[in-house]
Structures are given as C-alpha cells and as structure tokens.
Write a structure and sequence with these properties.
Helix 1 crosses helix 6. The protein starts with a helix and ends with a helix. Helix 8 links the parallel strand 9 and strand 10. The chain has 2 domains: about 200 residues, Alpha-Beta Complex (DHBP synthase); about 80 residues, 3-Layer(aba) Sandwich (Rossmann fold), CATH 3.40.50. The protein is of the alpha/beta class. The protein has 10 helices and 14 strands. Helices cover about 30% and strands about 15% of the residues. About 0% of the residues have low confidence. The structure holds adenosine monophosphate and magnesium ion. The site of magnesium ion (MG) has 3 residues, from loops.
C-alpha cells in the first residue's frame, strides 16, 4: 500500500499531467485540476455536470502563486491574505493573462484562495501549479465532507481520491470581490463580514448573497441540497404533516418525533452539517426539517447554505 506521502506525490504528478484529483480541504473536499490546463478543466466540468457559466476557484500554496494569477494585487488583498490565509476566504481579483477563460467562465476576474489543510497545501506545492477545485460532487448535490462521499458520488470518474479526515470548517469558503470600489461579499461563509471589516474596513454585501434575510423564501437558487426535501422552519412548528421526517434542531426540538440535536455554536454546527445531511439522506426519510438558525453574523454562511438547500 502507498503511504500518505506517496499518494500525495502521485496526485501531484497526475495534476501536472492533466489528471483530476479529489482532495481534502478545511471547507469541503475539492475536485482538482491544473488551473492552467483547459483540457483538464473541461474534465472537471464534465465530471461534475457543472454549467460552463459557473467559474472555478483556484487553490494556491503561496501568496506568490496567487499574485501570478492576478493583474493587480491591491493592498487589501495583501492584508487579507496575510490575516486569513491559509483559510476559508476566496478573493476575486482581475485575472492575469496566464489564467484561461475556461477557468473563469469567460470573466476577466479570478477567484483565489489558499486552503488550510496539510494534504491540500502539500499537493499544490508539489504539483507546482495552481489547482482549480470546485466541491467534489455532482452539480447541485451536497458537498462532500469525506473521501467516502466523494467515492460514492463520483467514484471511477476521478483519477485519485486523497483522504484527509473531516474538514475543520465544513462549509464552502467566504467569497469576497476586490475588483472595484468597496469590497463586495459575494458568498457568506465562516469568515464573517465582521471579521473582514475588522481587517480592511467597510464591506458591501451582494444582492442575494444570502447574508441576512432573502426577500422571500424560494427565491434563492437551489444548491447544496440533499435528495430528501429539506424544510427550513421556525422553532418546532410548520413541519410537514405527512410522511416520516426528521428534525435537526439546536435550541428546541419542538414537537418533532425524530429529533437530531445539533450544536449551539456556529463553528461546530457548520462542521457537522453536511455530514449529517448525507447520513440522513441515506436513511430514507420523507423529509428533513431544520430549525432556522439565528440571524447573528457568525451564522450567515450556514443560513445561506440551508436556504439554498431548502424547498421552503
Ligand atoms: P464553488 O461552487 O464552491 O466551486 O465556488 C464557486 C463560487 O466562487 C461561485 O459560486 C462564485 O461565487 C465564486 N467565484 C469564483 N470565481 C469567481 C469570479 N471570477 N468572480 C466571481 N465569483 C467567483
Ligand atoms: Mg459546490
């Protein structure tokens, strides 16, 4: 059997030669390919069934690698990278000429982050190329938080799947655009708007980014979803009256027959969320109810994912 180090070395060689390698990060497991190789990128879109209009995030192992992919590297990028990298913050910046449009879905900008996982960092460093990696699941499905889930979802389509335990953060990165004017939050995550503002001052929030309330339920794009219908509801009530369901709660189990207690703090909740949904998806429930988390800032990323996963 190959050792962990040998597997990473094989993964790095595969990436250099146009292969597709699934690997652990601190957010979710990624499906990686050389970001500078349009043929390898096409395979990632194909395996995921992802529309070509959705750009991929590039993963780097150093700030120098990030800078090489950008046309401008503003002061704010340097400050944020020093504060939060390696970590779950993606910065969107004007792209440099080396970055293929196949990666950015035709945009003149590129999303970049440095993952805080030893396997990911070592894989990218040894590959010596920036690594494009969306979550390692079919388009619209739940993001994987274990190598087994990647195997179940994508299996033989991937050249190699690296193991790396349960991700520390558990949901996808915060995405922040530094392309023009005031920084713009495109997707909330476990690094909150307040965390970023503490570091660089005022941040705007993109319409529909999920931070705070959506104008009305059901308007959000369905994404990050289990196969079982998911209902995001106020404490206890409003659950479906028919079928056998299960209720995820962190403060009040309400009247639910089958309750699953979730942690009361956002960090622990995020770490468990996708794994729990994966498990329940396999248990044959008619529906999954989820107690709506509080509107506090540190829950913004979790609330966003739950809203996108829910049918109401
Ligand atoms: P994921 O679905 O986790 O692979 O993350 C992709 C997300 O990153 C997209 O939904 C965008 O929000 C964001 N993203 C990546 N690249 C860009 C870009 N060039 N401009 C704007 N957003 C981007
Ligand atoms: Mg995804």
């Amino acid at each position: 059997m190959e050792s962990a180090a040998e597997l990473i070395a094989r993964g790095a060689a595969l990436l250099r030669n146009g292969g597709v390698v699934a690997f652990p990060t601190e957010t979710v497991y990624g499906l990686g390919a050389n970001a500078l190789d349009p043929v390898a990128l096409a395979r990632v879109y194909e395996i995921k069934g992802r529309p070509r209009t959705s750009p991929l995030i590039v993963h780097v192992s150093s700030i120098a690698m990030a800078r090489a992919m950008t046309a401008v590297w503003p002061e704010q990028a340097e400050t944020l990278a020093r504060e939060f990298w390696p970590g779950p913050l993606t910065l969107v910046l004007p792209k440099s000429a080396v970055v293929p449009m196949d990666l950015t879905a035709g945009l003149e900008t590129v999303g970049i982050r440095m993952p805080a996982h030893p396997v990911a960092l070592s894989l990218i460093e040894q590959a010596g190329v920036p690594v494009a990696a969306p979550s390692a699941n079919r388009f619209m499905a739940l993001s994987p938080t274990s190598a087994d889930q990647v195997r179940q979802g994508l299996g033989a389509a991937v050249d190699l799947i690296l193991e790396g335990g349960v991700p520390e953060v558990g949901i996808e990165s915060t995405v922040l655009s530094l392309v023009e004017g005031t920084p713009l939050l495109l997707r909330p995550g476990m690094i909150s708007r307040a965390d970023i503002e503490e570091c660089i001052g005022l941040v705007r929030v993109a319409e529909g980014s999920g931070e705070g309330a959506h104008p009305s339920p059901g308007m959000h794009e369905r994404h990050y979803a289990p196969r079982t219908p998911l209902y995001l509801v106020g404490t206890g009530g409003e659950l479906p009256r028919t079928g056998r369901g299960v209720f995820l709660y962190s403060t009040d189990s309400g009247e639910a027959e089958n309750g699953v207690a979730m942690p009361g703090d956002a960090q622990s909740y995020a770490r468990l969320l996708y794994g729990t949904l994966h498990r329940l998806d396999g248990e044959g429930w008619d529906w999954i109810g989820v107690e709506r988390p509080s509107g506090e800032a540190e829950w913004a990323g979790i609330l966003d994912r739950l809203q996108r996963a829910s049918i109401r």
